[in-house]
Amino acid sequence: MVQQLWLRCEKKAFERRSALTPTTAKKLINAGFEITVERDPQRIFDDAEFDAVGCTLVPNNSWPSAPTDIPIIGLKELPASDDPLPHTHIQFAHCYKKQARWASVLDRFRRGGGTLYDLEFLTDAKGRRVAAFGFHAGFAGAAAGALALGAHRKRERLGPLEPYLNETAMVNHVKEVLGGSGKGVKALVIGALGRCGNGAVDLLRKIGLDEDDIIKWDMAETAKGGPFQEILDVDIFINCIYLSSAIPPFLTTEQIVAAGQSRKLAIAVDVSCDTTNPFNPIPIYDINTTFSNPTVPVELGNVVPSLSVISIDHLPTLLPREASEQFSADLLPSLLELPKRQSARVWTDAEKLFKEKVSEAMGVQHT
User: Is residue 315 annotated as involved in ligand binding?
Assistant: First the structure.
């Protein structure tokens, strides 16, 4: 039996990435898959690129009428709705860590009889994610933070962000905004040993920060528990951790106010974006920001210098083509196992977790 897979369009504003690229779609087709692709003017890849490799193109957002035995793959969460979900969905659903509306999202699958394979929780035998946007999230987050610092120095607020054609264009633009180089800027990256942290450090190096001015922290440095004075002593703080349980906050509003005029910190970039997570270690803001409005000011009153937070939850779309190619290539080996998902460990583990979370959500819905 031929394995079918349906690439849906993305409905999140400014999202230009794609879970499948023409490159990976062609490899799946060569392996015997049939790939359906929704037309999407927002996607970084033109419809014609998918058509050229043998995909079947269908109208934008037509997946709800697709046969329910065809898995639907996308990236970001579906628009809020109470409609039951009868399909199998492969996507980032942002509901397993009790984010906003998590129980109602899972209840849609329960009522529709569908299944969720959350991309965040597709893991290898060692528990490591098979595919992640971490590197490009950190890279883009650090770039956005540096751009916001450039605006801050002019006593301005960072304006809308637009995706870049490639990494070189992004690096050159950031350096230009900082006056030719990031030399003299000081930054602290928490989670520096992970994929996301590596991306942030790479960007900071490429825009010209001295190595001594890139402070790299990971679990060893945060083991003592926050809040951390060291965060207040840099220009840019970049949070790249993977949050799995409650931890002491890294930074608090009270700490910032108490520091008064002595604080150096101007920009906090929460790449991890656990905004609605009850364990958010940066409880100085409470909304996600967007490409059209990338920063939110921390409410500090008028007695201390201003501080802005960037909390965009799809930063890699600032480099949509490169980020998509890397992610999709990493995901490909697991997708090739989709025809045997009833026995392939990566898929059986993901389905088991889904059922556990649905049971947990049912308990919440009925209390």
Answer: yes
Long-range contact list for 183-186, CB < 8 A, 24+ apart? 183/208, 183/209, 183/210, 184/213, 185/146, 185/149, 185/209, 185/213, 185/235, 185/236, 186/213, 186/215, 186/233, 186/234, 186/235, 186/236, 186/264
Sign, CA dihedral 86-87-93-95, equals positive
- Residues in contact with 266: Cβ distance below 8 Å, sequence separation at least 6, in sequence order: 148, 149, 152, 235, 236, 305, 306, 307, 308
Q: Which residue has the tokens 């900082």?
A: 178
Catalytic residue, chosen from 76, 89, 175, 357, is 76
DSSP type of residue 316: G
Reply yes or no on whether 76 is catalytic: yes
Q: How far apart are CA 318 and CA 55, in angstroms?
A: 26
Model's pTM, two decimal places?
0.80
SS3 188: strand
Sorting pLDDT into bands at 50, 70 and 90, what band is 365? low
* 238 assigned to a ligand binding site: no
The pair of three-digit structure tokens given for residue 100, joined into one six-digit string: 């906003």
- The reply to whether 366 belongs to the active site is no
Q: Is 224 exposed, middle or buried (0-12, 13-18, 19+ CB in 10 A)?
A: exposed
Q: Is the pLDDT of residue 325 over 90?
A: yes
Percent of the chain with pLDDT over 90: 87
Q: What is the Cα–Cα distance from 74 to 42, expressed in whole angstroms?
A: 13
Known binding residue 222? Answer is yes
Q: Are 139 and 200 in contact (CB under 8 A)?
A: yes
Average pLDDT over residues 53-79: 97
Alpha helices in 223-302 (DSSP H): 229-232, 253-259
Q: State the CB neighbour count (10 A cutoff) for residue 4.
A: 17
CA distance 265 to 232: 5
349 known member of a binding site: no
Q: Which two tokens stand for residue 175?
A: 């350096």
Q: Tell me the β-bridge partners of 309.
A: 268, 296
Exactly one of 12, 26, 94, 175 is catalytic; name it: 94
pLDDT of 243 = 81
Does 313 appear as a known binding residue?
yes
